[in-house]
Design a protein that fits this description.
The structure is a single chain. This protein is mostly beta strands. It has two domains: 9-36; 39-84 and 97-137, Sandwich (Immunoglobulin-like). Helix content is 12%, strand content 33%. It is built from one helix and seven strands; from the N terminus they run αβββββββ. The strands form two sheets. A four-stranded antiparallel beta sheet has the order 1-2-7-6, with no helix packed on it. A hairpin with a 2-residue loop joins β6 (117-121) and β7.
Length: 144
């Protein structure tokens, strides 16, 4: 009879695997249609001490939109896009979606949620997320 030694799984490895799987599934939408792109379309880039995020939200009003920062590195954009067909009209084509949506992004570094700024202009949501002090590099003095 052969005995196999059991080693417990390292939680950090499992967490890393889960993050990678979430990243893969985020690329393919929310599961309702595996080929549908995520909504809203988002661009994110680092600029100096901040992360900037832009999302296309045409026709959305401020009261239909919520933005959350959780855990210092999760940005959630939540809202509702209402039907824009006037009552009594006959609709011939509908290519723009409507209804509730939620988009959550894992940020590349912790942000200072107290200093986040958001603005909605001409259908584009712009969010500025300053780096948290813990995420900023600091110089270490080397002693001899």
């Amino acid at each position: 009879m052969f005995a196999t030694r059991w080693y417990p799984v390292n939680n950090s490895v499992l967490n890393q695997f889960q993050q990678e799987m979430n990243r893969v599934f985020d690329r393919w939408g929310d599961g309702r249609n595996s080929l549908a792109p995520a909504y809203p379309a988002v661009n994110a880039w680092e600029e100096g001490e901040t992360l900037r995020v832009e999302a296309e939200l045409p026709g959305l009003n401020l009261e239909d939109l919520e933005i959350f920062v959780t855990g210092q590195n999760q940005l959630t954009i939540k809202g509702e896009r209402k039907v824009a067909v006037p009552e009594g009209s006959v609709q011939h084509r509908q290519e723009r979606g409507f209804g509730n949506f939620v988009r959550t992004l894992t940020l590349p570094f912790p942000v200072d949620d107290a200093k986040v700024e958001a603005r909605l202009e001409n259908g584009v949501l712009s969010i500025v997320l300053p780096k948290h002090e813990a995420a900023k590099p600091r110089r270490i003095a080397v002693k001899s």
